[in-house]
Amino acid sequence: MTGKGKIAVLDVGKTNVDLWVADPAGHLLENRSTPNKVSDGPPWRHHDLKTLGDWLGETLAAICLHHPIELLIPVGHGAGGVLVGGDPGSEHMGAMLPMIDYEESCPEDINTEYLGISGTFEDRGSQVMMASTHAARQLLLMQRADPKTFAKASHYLNIAQYWGWWLTGVAASEFSAMGAQSHLWNVPRRQWSPIVDAQSWRGLMPDFRPAWSKLGNIRPELRSRYGLPDTIGVLTGAHDSSSNYYRYIAAGLEDFTLVSTGTWVVAMSREANTATLDHDRGTTINADMNGMPVGGALVMAGREFSAIAGPTWHGDGAKLEALARIVKQGTLALPSFSNNDGQFPGSAGRGKIIGPMPETAADRTALAVLQAALLTVNCADVLDGGRRLILDGTFLKEPLYAPLVAALRPDDKTELSEEKNGVVIGALCLAAQELGGQPIDLSLKPVEPAVIPGLATYASDWRTAAEANASKAQ
Q1: Rounded to whole angstroms, what are the CA distances from 92 to 61, 160, 386?
Q2: CA triple 43-46-141, angle to 5 deg
Q3: Would the pTM of this model clear 0.85, i.e. be above it?
Q4: Tens of pLDDT along 188-209?
Q5: Is residue 241 part of a domain?
Q6: Counting runs of H as helices and runs of E as strands, what totals does the chain give?
Q7: 174, 202, 236 — which closes off a domain?
């Protein structure tokens, strides 16, 4: 990248919010973090935007004392947004109604209505998922709960674009955020989903801007309140997982499937045929930064890992001898221990262990790592995208996870990225578009498969048993 100033990245996750600073070459210089606080209500569980806004303003001001920030780019998770009024400086951070926590249970009457009006899989980009996931369902809930207040709203903004609007006063929609299972945007047809016009929401949707385009500089009110310089430009921003995916696209990679790991395992590939995805297998249609379709598949593998490893697990790595023992004795963990079906329709909440029970913490850890690897491969198989599999994210802290994945798919190449902050680096690659510089170098390592006798048979048995366990709920 070029330019004399530093780049700030605001990364709004479900659990934590981070503010990063990088130099023009893409080196990360500083990080500040805060919990993404949630209040129980009323009227529903919601995010504390006021506390977060003050943290952002004060933290950015403190950072600017020793880093000359030129640009700020926001990124955020894809499971929500904010219904706002005309003035970002108004009460409640411009929010007309509190920002819904997507893990809040959705009222049954709203769920029933939503299932009837949310359109086709292509319109939505996914099946209807857990709790209050999906921006369109959240909008329906707000509209039914308080129609008078709802009618006074000016915009609905995805998370990154909300913070861009709060900082600059400029409202925008963005492809990767609207295409992250908001159920508002039909990605293949590049048009609003039918629910938008049916519910008279079109007026709430701002025009699209590229993720890398500059909205404007920080508002004078915020500059005065927090002591910020008047030279910080704010970009439109993007969906977090799509930002991470973008760093591979920016590097020129083709024919690959990326699997990013954490609470969710997220597989993404431009090579997947979005017209033939199995809708019942946790598949999605996302959008890239230019609005083109990207096939996806999701599974809540982090929650699966925690449930199997148990509360006594404190980060200990799996042992090869324990993995071999679990495979030899045929102990199987069948999904899903979370409230998400993943690739096994009907399995949510039906997770169980069959065969000899793991007797030690080491055995439970081994079983959890095996489950993570099996879910990863199954997720990629269902997506059927590019043949080159690239792994990144939290699961790589476990040394045997990637070798297990490679062993479970012996006919294809498996690589990994050791970059721990892929979302941030992807955002910096987007900033490079605005600054006219070059994308940040991408480094990948080939993965040597683990050697565990009987693993292929174990994997086949696991899949058969997992399908049978899920089918009992059908």
Answers
A1: 21, 17, 45
A2: 55
A3: yes
A4: 999 999 999 999 999 999 999 9
A5: no
A6: 16, 22
A7: 236
